[in-house]
Amino acid sequence: MITDLQPSAIWNYFYQITQVPRPSKKEEKILDFLLDFARSHNLEAKQDKVGNLLITKPATPGRENVPTVILQSHVDMVCEKNSDVAHDFDNDPIETIIDGDWVKANGTTLGADNGIGVAAQLALLAADGVAHGRIEALFTVDEETGLTGANSLEKDFLTGNILINLDTEEEGEIYTGCAGGKGTKACFKYKEKDVPKKYTWFRIQVKGLRGGHSGCDIDRKLGNANKILVRFLHTVVRKKYGTVLSEIGGGNLHNAIPREAYALLGVKEKYREDVRVKLNTFLSQVREEYKHTDPGLDIQLESVHIPSKVISKKTVGKLISALYACPHGVIGMSHEIPGLVETSTNLASVKMVGHRLIEVGTSQRSSVESQKEYAVNMVSSVFELAGAKVTHNDGYPGWQPNPDSDILKVAQREYEALFGKSAKVKAIHAGLECGLFLEKYPHLDMISIGPDVTDVHSPDEKMKISSVGKFWDFLIKILENL
Q1: Is 76 a catalytic residue?
Q2: Could you say which of 80, 113, 136, 143 is catalytic?
Q3: I need a surface site. Which of 90, 136, 138, 230 has the fewest CB within 10 A?
Q4: Which residue, 392, 412, 432, sits at the end of a domain?
Q5: Domain residue limits at 62
Q6: pLDDT digits over 50-85, tens only?
């Protein structure tokens, strides 16, 4: 049981959090849990209009003149599972597994992003033996699907001038900047046609990919199920086989690299075996391409019943061409910070929604605002040329590093004192809420820290046990030595 792990305070709260369902936009249960916690510990709590929660703990005796520190994390989690796992994220708890020095979940996302941050906040709010100034524990909502909580945070909700974000995933690294992002959506309307006669029908499914975070993992050259599926469809839709399409889908969330994708396609009966042979050849090729990053890659072809209708060939041709041409991956690296991805785009999802509508979801990120817009316009142009209706969300700003940050200097000093080595100061290609906080509170002095969490936004998500204790000790030292 993870409740047997040390430090027990943070692990006990993390376990409790895993028992509370908390999908994005459905955070009522976890917010009720946090309000109950505040009441049981006689702590002041308040919520704003969108649901963000602030729990305040007074300074310990003798520390009343120490600056107020805002500790911040988000309460929602990415809900991804393997296709063969039965799990209801609206109602079921996360089943945790200890594997050596790692904690993971049984076929689902673990929710360490950002449940471990929430657990650290609760452990500090409940702690008796930690010296600190006044603490404002900020719990934001809907970070994963829209940054709604940070975007709607009221200007007079916080009083502190120092903010420690607890949403990064590498122990020993202090983050002082992040990329901004924007979502681009393309919608294809289509006409339904009658199913042609003397056709064989298949369900083709790409599966076994690792997936990952569309920011942190975009430079790992992981397989994108949508791109792999479309590469094969492109070879059969435009050839002699008379291929028709009834369904297509892949991916789920804008900030996750898609792990699975499928299509229902029909081919003339006389070409049945030709298509099987072509798929086997293609599978052999892509397995060789992704043998280092996605060794579990598989593409399955199985016979299915004849569908009731098919998508018009005109729409299928435009859709497949647009998906094929749509960029995915790293567009440019930073010249200012070695090794940092500057600009990227993720072909995140393909969904049949509503009536005769196919929706393609993508997301673009960059630490340079003009490059973010360049990536957005590049992706938009591909789909506009194919006749799709393109829309965008409001996006969110990046967080520019501040090398003169006082809280950064304290964190660097305390990390070296604790562990005898320097912490790495970095920026991250993922989106953090810090940029949005600065729009409302431009005076904030901020850093972001966390333990080791890998493969976030996928069922392979796991957290390194030994790093949690170091993260906890580091956070306490920062608060004790401000």
Answers
A1: yes
A2: 143
A3: 90
A4: 392
A5: 2-179+398-480
A6: 999 999 999 999 999 999 999 999 999 999 998 889
